[in-house]
Amino acid sequence: MKRRLALLIALAMIVGAVAACGSSGGAEQSSTTARTAAETKTAEAETKSGSGDRQEITFWHYMSEDKEGKFVNQAVEEFNNSQDEVYVTAQYLPREELMKQYTIGVVSGELPDCGMVDNPDHNSYASMGVFEDITDLYDAWDEANFMEGSINSCYYEGNLYGLPWGNNCLGLFYNKAMLDEAGIEVPTTWSELEAACEALTTDSCKGLAISAINNEEGTFQYMPWLLSSGGSVMNLTSDGSKESMTYLSGLIEKGYISKECVNWTQADAEKQFASGQAAMMINGPWQFSGLAEDAPDLEFGVAKVPKTDDGEYASVLGGENVAICTGANIEASWKFLTWMTSKEKSQEICKSIGRFSPRSDIDIQEMFSDDPLNSVFAEIMPDAQSRGPSPDWPEISAAIYTAQQEVFTGQKDVDTAMADAQAKIDEINAE
Amino acid sequence: MQLNNRARKEKFIGYCFIIPAVIYMLIFIGYPIIYNWIISFQDVTAKTLNSPVRDIIGLDNYRAIFADATFRKALINTFIYTVGCLVIQFSLGFLFAMFFAKKFKLSKPIRGFIVISWMLPVTVTALIFKFMFAEGNGIINAILLNLGLINEPIGWLLQGSTAMFVLIIANSWVGIPFNMLLLTTGLNNIPGDIYEAASIDGATGIQKFFKITIPLLKPTIMSVLILGFVLTFKVFDLVYVMTGGGPVDATEVLSTYSYKLSFQLFRFGEGAAVANVLFVCLFLVALVYLKTISKDEVI
Amino acid sequence: MKKMHLSQKQKNILLSILAILIACVFLFPLYWIVVNSFKLDSEIFASVPTLWPKGITLKAYQDQLGSLAVTLKNSIIIALGSMVLSLCLSVPAAYGLARFKVRGMKLFVLIFLITQMLPASLVLTPLFLIFSNLGILNTYLAPILSTATISIPFIVLMLRPGFLSMPKDLEDTARIDGCNTISAFLRVAIPIARPTVITAACFSFVYAWNDLAYSMTFNTKESMRPMTSAIYTFMNQYGTKWNSIMAYGVLLILPCCIIFVTMQKHIVEGMTSGSVKG
User: Fold this and answer.
1) Is residue A296 domain-shared with residue A331, that is, in the same domain?
2) Given B119, B122, B139, which is nearest C257 (Cβ)?
3) Same domain for A176 and A149?
4) Domain of A209?
């Protein structure tokens, strides 16, 4: 009995000691980057020898190490090596976790110096006070040339709260072999798409895979259809808006799109396409690496999202923005952000992470002229419309993806669902 | 005189045993509870989160949520889910506890194996069941189709009713060994002699069960039920990871809705109000539990 | 009507078979996890699921090894720390509530019940504020303290009926022999209630080991993350890598399984050692 007690006390002491070590160790490790242990040692050696007067800032992002994260780290390393005044430590957090940290950070004051944010969410977090107003810095910057849609997402109530970092959009992926076998041309209009689906859908393969999940991804995927038929987020009960919803739910009813799309993320849709269970999918250029891994032998092509028979092509703008958080070292952070989004670096960085540069002085079509897949997206980009911007975008988006889910699961018909969604949006706007 | 001192010293020692844990919980959980109550009475949204002074709007947040159809659905869902889980978990857990208490060779190892399901992190459990019940290539549909029990694949997570069913099954899968363990420990505490004495007196198995096992197990049973209710009612990870509250809001429960209101729609005041409704429901159940245990002070 | 008299041996065999059947049905999801952890990506997404992998690959496990050293260490520290803290606070509390006639017993039980009522996800912000003010963010203390808040009330409420059902005789005997209350507690009550205490220890260890929300929210540094955080690597905007998630699940349970299997012996001891005779 005594031995047991002694053991327990000893254990408690050991754990206590380790925990205490952990806390001081944590403080020492404040300049550790998100790299492997070996590289960490080198980084620490660098810091100790070179930091001296260097200002240290932190940059939180959500690009995971095994995908684009390593290029982000490379860019950060390049910045650190290129000058002596600022040292950036990049930290990866899963996206939802990072957003949660922003929210908690507003109340607790524990925010990083720079942070990444998805462009439709930027406005909400700016309204919460997560980001610093950098309007003056921006106006004084002579290299400030960004595409309107991209920079607009950073404005809140007339002031600027960040810079666009990289953009992407949605297009139609198609399985070349399957289309050739069925003897179909790549569809460009809604009627052609429906016909193509009919020919391509078999017992084991659906014509088209999309994501209609109950979060932002669902809304993101719905936007090209909504915009092409002349609909708008502010008027969901218009004929154009309803037409798009009716069209898509029709495809599901006819069995061309799997009913499970209401549970699929865009990544799940990619898995369907990669495994040959869908002949086509709506997705974006960030899936290229995933497809290369999942289905290296799959020959696929990319096209614009089909437009209504008498309408225009439309797509939706996605991507990430970067911003300076409140209470940060503004000078050092601005140095870092302007370096990353500068004309010289933006092109390079964006290409490595599979995004398109939001700068208006970079010709993305020329950039990808010899890349058949990316060039299609480069073509789509100028017409891609951004979501919002609005600080209430999360709520508006919720109304939209809820309506989509209600229609696709057969809970409500298009008219009711759209009317209910519109009512919610009106309420939000009235506040 | 000495007796009085002794009694007081006893009481003091008794407090010393209990108080540290109480203070610990009051600090680390008491503060969040109060924090939530305060916020639920204020107008806290994305715009006002940062302001030092927030409007106190009394019961407006509560009025807003009760007028919200999704909230009402979440409230009902949470009860259906909890009661469903409790019934299955407790009855099967009890059955297993009784079964594995019998002395046969494999009882202990197999009981040990069954407990593994409880040791899995809930996120993994949620994902594995999501994977198994997928409409297209889920193993459950494959088995049912092969056995001829269904003609076409069921969209388990695509319809509200079946989605809730899958959630209950998944949670019960985790809860059964948990209930079984607790009830086993309780069963172990019943001295074997009592059963022997009863046998000598000619009691049958059923009589032994109802007249000995159940009464002696009562404190454990009540504990298991109340703990099960509280822990099931506040489910978050399982629902959030498996269905996200969907399809649409068919499986939305109070904790997921509160989380969404706060962290996705930035309506913090309403999120806190929903959390408090959850709290109040559990509080009322706790009061009922307290009433029952006051009757069996076995000292 | 002849009554079937089964010999003890036959009974044993029948029960064992039944037990195996129950285990097979019940543990099918576990089997599914292990089997899928060895499958190739393409097989996992095939339209017809296979009960046994056609091609076996260890890639899913290899993917986990990357940061395993650091995360394993973190998980162990957090889980052990939380377990010790919980036991030190909750076992005495349970004993006190069972054995002493203190005023406010009901209030204390109510407090332990109430403090379990908020889901972890909803106490994140206020706890974050407390830890931020204490300056213990990004240390081991934050997850240890927060995960302990889950186990403590649970263990108190679980152990209390255990102590209640224990007859007081042995402790009284010890007291007459000259032990004071604390010694009676440590030397008599705990050993008798050992199976229950060990079960409590296992519970608190497993809860802390499986914690994700608290560890992730309070410790943003990657070097402080526990094993559970690896799930984000396999579940992100690039999709859900099922085989990696299955492998992750297998690796996560292994330590808990080992502990549990070794502890089972003690629980068995409690069952067969009998109790107060006469």
Assistant:
1) no
2) B119
3) no
4) 171-316+392-430
Chain A adjacent subunits, 3+ CB pairs under 8 A: B, C
Contacting residues for C134 by C-beta, under 8 A, at least 6 apart: none
Subunit contact B248:A99, Cβ cutoff 8 A: no
| Ramachandran region, residue A101 (left: φ > 0; alpha: ψ -120 to 50; beta: rest) | alpha
- Residues A270 and A415 reside in one and the same domain: yes
C-alpha–C-alpha distance, residues C253 and C227, integer Å: 11
CATH of the domain at A239: 3.40.190.10
Q: Do C111 and B192 touch (CB under 8 A)?
A: no
| Structure-block tokens of residue B150 | 């269904």
Phi, psi of A146 (to 5 degrees): -125, 155
Per-residue pLDDT of chain C (278 residues; tens, 9 = 90+): 445 566 778 888 888 888 888 888 888 998 888 888 888 777 777 767 777 777 777 877 877 777 788 889 999 999 999 999 999 999 989 888 888 877 788 888 888 888 888 888 888 889 999 998 888 888 999 999 999 999 999 889 878 877 877 777 777 777 777 777 777 777 777 787 787 788 888 889 988 999 888 988 998 888 888 988 888 877 776 667 788 888 888 888 888 888 777 776 665 544 344 333 32
Amino acid at C187: R
Whether residue A40 is contained in a domain is answered as no
- Residue ranges of alpha helices (H) inside A201-286 are 216-228, 239-253, 266-274
Nearest alpha carbon to residue A269 among A202, A221, A319: A221
Global pTM? Answer: 0.85
In this structure, are A157 and A207 located in the same domain?
Answer: no
Residues of A in contact with B266 (CB under 8 A): 103, 124, 128, 394
Which residues have C-beta within 8 Å of that of residue A145, sequence separation ≥ 6?
A343, A359, A360, A361
* Dihedral (Cα; B94, B98, B100, B103), 10-degree rounding: 170
Longest dimension (CA), chain C: 78
A379 shares its domain with A420 = no
Count of structural domains, chain B: 1
Token code pair at residue B126: 């949620």
Q: What is the residue range of B208's domain? A: 70-296
Q: Are A288 and A417 found together in one domain?
A: yes
Domains of chain C: 59-272 (1.10.3720.10)
Q: How far is CA A388 from the centre of its chain?
A: 15
Q: In this structure, is residue A61 part of a structural domain? A: yes
Q: In terms of C-beta density within 10 A (0-12 exposed, 13-18 middle, 19 or more buried), how is residue A34 classed?
A: buried
| Count of structural domains within chain A | 2
Q: Cβ separation of A290 and C238 shorter than 8 Å? A: yes
Are A217 and A73 part of one and the same domain? no
